[in-house]
Write a structure and sequence with these properties.
Order of helices and strands: EHHEHHHEHEHEEHEHEHHEEEE
Number of helices: 11
Strand order of the largest sheet: 1-5-4-2-3
Largest sheet: 5 strands, mixed
Number of domains: 2
CATH architecture of the largest domain: 3-Layer(aba) Sandwich
Structural class: alpha/beta
Strand content: 15-25%
Helix content: 25-40%
Length: 321
């Protein structure tokens, strides 16, 4: 069994330490900015000044999850990130160009690697347990979740699992040059405390597919493996840039409530982690309100087809108390 004990997200929505944020969530616009909390309340100022945006988000969300559960040290720290610490990577490359044959300051290089996020969390918590970073394009978070499942199967009890990606200005130029204009590129970090201890939120299954042949067939096989009927899902949170993929999802779940979480999270490689927190928040809302609608859901499917060649599926349910 795979249960979620706590969730924490910093995004362009009022998600951080704000339960039932889904009740009044709104679609992003061009003026939307990252809603950052007061990081000094969660991170030592001495450490904070050396941290980039993605590290600040990730560490703060991790600390928040631990505070929610009262756990001081998780059995594993598992992070997914598509592009890693872009801000520090850019600084390192600029230093490399400007210094030429001189000595390059090592800080930006050390902090530019993808596993810096998980490593920084580990250092702050003084945690020496299993520490892993997954970077598989838009499926990075799904791979992190699958790794967490394996750790729980092997006897782990409390695992810190999350994902983060940050937006820097050069991404706007790159996306425009490769034909993706007017994309809402954003930043975000979401972390979760997963456990084998009972809670009212359970992840039934998670899987990822690369270079799949048919979206419909792949989703049907996923439900068959999960031993859940397609009709048992009440809400589908999806993300896709292609209209034909969107149509395939709509045809497959004809009559079901469909929500494009990309409109609320924006576009970053690990935004399916935002979708998981959004799903949790919807399931925990006793008023059964979402974006002005009254909905009654028990099972939610997250369908991540942001990259047309990749498909990530996460199935979540709320158990009766």
């Amino acid at each position: 069994m795979y249960f979620i004990q706590a969730a924490s997200t910093i995004s362009h929505q009022p998600t951080f330490q704000n339960k039932i944020f889904s009740e009044n969530i709104s679609e992003l616009n061009a003026a939307s900015e990252l809603l950052s909390p007061d990081y000094k309340k969660h991170i030592s100022p001495v450490l904070l000044r050396r941290m980039s945006k993605i590290l600040r988000m990730s560490v703060t969300c991790s600390v928040d999850c631990l505070q929610q559960t009262g756990i001081k040290s998780p059995d594993a720290i598992i992070v997914g990130t598509g592009l890693g610490c872009l801000d520090d990577t850019e600084k390192f490359l600029n230093n490399f160009i400007s210094v030429k044959e001189g000595l390059i300051p090592p800080t930006s290089f050390i902090q530019s690697t993808h596993n810096t996020i998980a490593g920084q969390i580990s250092l702050i918590l003084q945690n020496h347990n299993y520490n892993m970073t997954h970077t598989q394009n838009t499926l990075s978070f799904e791979h992190a979740l699958q790794d967490a499942f394996l750790c729980l199967d092997e006897g782990g009890e409390n695992l810190l699992v999350g994902a983060a990606d940050e937006h820097i200005e050069i991404l706007d130029d790159i996306s425009e040059k490769i034909g993706y204009k007017n994309m809402q590129l954003t930043s975000g970090a979401s972390f979760f405390m997963m456990s084998n201890k009972n809670s009212n939120l359970r992840v039934l299954n998670v899987t990822s597919f690369g270079l799949f042949n048919s979206l419909s067939t792949t989703v049907k096989d996923f439900f068959s493996e999960s031993k859940i009927d397609l009709k048992a899902v009440d809400l589908i949170l999806y993300s896709t840039l292609l209209e034909n993929s969107k149509n395939a999802i709509f045809d497959l779940f004809n009559g079901k409530l469909m929500v494009n979480y990309e409109k609320y999270a924006g576009i970053y490689f690990s935004n399916s982690a935002f979708a998981l927190h959004l799903a949790i928040d919807i399931l925990e809302n006793e008023k059964k309100k979402f974006n002005g609608m009254t909905i009654d859901v028990k099972r939610i499917l997250i369908c991540n087809n942001l990259n047309p060649h990749n498909l990530g599926l996460i199935l979540l349910e709320k158990l009766e108390t």
